[in-house]
Amino acid sequence: MRRGFLNSKAAKERLSSATAQQFEQIKVTSVDLPAVLEKPVVVPGSTFSPTDPPTHIWATLPQLYGEPSTECVLLRGSKEIILKTPGFPKRLPPANSPAAFRVAPSPGKGMGLFSTRPIKQGEIILWERPLLIAPRGVPTRFPPGSFSAAQMIQHHLDACEHFIAIAVNRMEENCRAAFMSLHNCHTHDGSGPLVGRFRTNGVALGGLDGVQHQTDKPYNAILEHVSRLNHSCSPNTQPFFDRATFAYKLYAVRDVPAGEELTYQYIDVLANKTARAESLKPYDVVCTCLACTENIAETDKRRSEIANIFPFVPTWLMNYQLPDDWLIKKCTALLELIDKEGLQHLEGYCMGTRAIMDSYICLGDSRNASKWAARVALRPWSECEAESYPVKELLDPGSPAYAQHPLWQMRMRMWM
Ligand SMILES: C[S@@+](CC[C@H](N)C(=O)[O-])C[C@H]1O[C@@H](n2cnc3c(N)ncnc32)[C@H](O)[C@@H]1O
């Protein structure tokens, strides 16, 4: 597979000084291919035809400033969304020196990431461009006839291997080596060596198809370091994809002492222990974190309570029957439960903190609101937070930003 015109030496030199606008004109390196299955291994006679309209494109993004590049398998429309992202392609910020993490063996878990020094809640541990992003599934067609479920799954896995192979073949040598050095826990289920690594190490990625805050994110990203994070049901980090830099930022979601293993959640950690154990089976993980080994009944109860509290301001604001401090009390209880369970990475943690600040704003209490604004500022890893009203101006209780805030004294004004 040709890597495209942006990869010649002359083109790279030209691009190293290119601006975002020039990049926009050049567009990305892409090869449009129809979704042809060249070798439908198990099910013979695939009905894909070379005349079918292309469903995916393979692209290398971005190749500027001599920074690491990402191989992408993109669904139709995603490339346009990426190119329209304000600020794209933004330079990566300089890396922490010395690095706040290291890769090292984690007993019983293979390799893992560990902190090299104390890290504060809200600190960015690392920025990293993915080696690869690709959809979690690809279109697969079957010729007429009847096939067993096993044949259909195998056929789909073969199609996925084919799609990923195109991207991996386009990688720079060092990126391909980094990809191939990642762990593969799917060696006995029909996955090929590339799909096995893709399924083992994928970090779910949304927002490239125009839909925000999806629970079922359509892409997986594979990264040299973030993909080394092992699972915990009480994780201490949360990865956040920043489209402008096309990179993940890895946040510490609570204070982390030096030498502690860095972890993130692979599955829904609000489920009970039995359901979590079931969801972790495909990753070959038998979790030994505290939530899975100690005081399981209490832990399950607290997690179920957390799942049932929604820190939604209008529910309280528009209901005069509820006391003025109703939402503040609810959210305080929510934050306490989350702290107890070590689940600060959840959206509910950031949303609950902001809901308390918003409640004080609705009540016209800028002194307390500013205290909570300071906490909101320390919890920037939420996807919703990135789009919410900025808190910087609200840190000072005397700021004129309060009187201009859309929620200012709203609780009183609603009932005048
Ligand atoms: C994304 S990789 C994480 C990095 C991996 N440990 C390595 O050596 O590269 C996922 C694999 O790590 C291992 N793993 C992750 N979390 C684990 C845990 N809590 N307990 C045991 N093994 C774990 C499992 O083998 C899993 O398939």
TrEMBL record:
Quote the Pfam families the UniProt record gives: SET
Which CDD domains does the UniProt record give?
SET_SMYD (cd20071)
Fetch the SMART domains from UniProt: SET (SM00317)
Outline the extent of the SET domain. Answer: 99-267
Q: Which InterPro entries match?
A: SET_dom, SET_dom_sf, SET_domain_protein
Under what name is this protein listed?
Aldehyde dehydrogenase
